[in-house]
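The following record pairs a protein chain with its ligand, iron/sulfur cluster.
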Amino acid sequence: MRPVFALRVTPRNRNSWPSVATALLGAEAAQALDFRVLERPGELPDGTRALAFSFVTPELEGVAREVRALRASHPGLWLLAGGAHASADPEGTLALGFDAVVAGEGEQAAQRLCGALAAGGPPPTGVWRSEALLELDQSLHVEPRLGLFPFAEISRGCPCGCAFCVATRLFGRRMRHRSPQVVAAGVALAARAGYHRFRFLSPDAFSYLGRDTLERRAALEELLVRCFEAGASQLMLGCFPSEVRPDRVEPELLALLRARCLNRTVVIGAQAGSDRVLGLMHRGHTVEASRRAVRLAHEADLVPLVDVMFGFPGEAPEDRQASLAFIEECLRETRALIHAHVYMPLPGSAAWPAAPEPVEDRVWAALEAHTRTGRLEGDWRKHQRIGARILRWREEGLIRV
Ligand code: SF4
């Protein structure tokens, strides 16, 4: 019986596994191992030798609990961690009870670890830093052999480096793309498995390939056409879990989305109604760019869903007032919906470990009032609680950066 190498798949990390799984299955040593997916912690397959986790910081406490339980129930099991949190705090992640941690993109390191495991010696330990970035176009976004059919990741990496976000540090500044042919090849396999509605995953859906708007429009159109030909019946672009940057929104791109995609909502990352706060966030665009993007989406017969964040470090009461005024302007002058959220401190982001600014009750009251109209949504109370918990974990030593 071959030793089992299991991937701990959760609803939250589903999108991060296929390219790692493809790398593992393509490793020279793969024949010596039996790869499985573990969806529930209590269902470890017989013969499991290794279990790999990938998780984000808000999941830290739950993962720590699961690792403690596994250490007690399966003392010889080799536990490996990767993903956003492990990359930002490899030493702290090791201290949770993992044997080895991959910091950075996991594909190449996973292959080397797989080889070491198949060789039958003692499993590798410590921090493995992965400097190499995956050439996205060389792998599909699905891994049918393990039943992994997540959202269609079309791009990875982000040049913007917004101070609250971990994408640039985790995936690098160079935006890499899967070509329309490669995305469509993944869609064809997913369609054969019974999937027909696809959401595209990208740090900025309107930055797909191309040097200017016309080239990007042509690339997106080819992407959509090829995916339909591959068996998709519904395609969703520029909406959850992706968004578009305000400074990339152009009428030609919105018209294409309106004509070819299922979604009638486009998520616009405005983030603040204050240029001073946008500067602190290193967003690289102005409030005027957000205003224009919201108006263009409205004129394109789409619903702009506008992301606005409160409590970013350094934000002052007058900045929050400006964000409320921006929200009210969007609601008054367009059919926009608002997604309000609170800054959450995350290891790996440039702003870490600064705490959120306290937000006045009058701001919450204004957001609540808009909620009652049905045009504003958001889990800001939950995000506040999670943010406070993350900072407490740092004080308690669960996070070491
Ligand atoms: S928030 Fe968006 S644009 Fe900014 S760094 Fe993250 S992925 Fe890039």
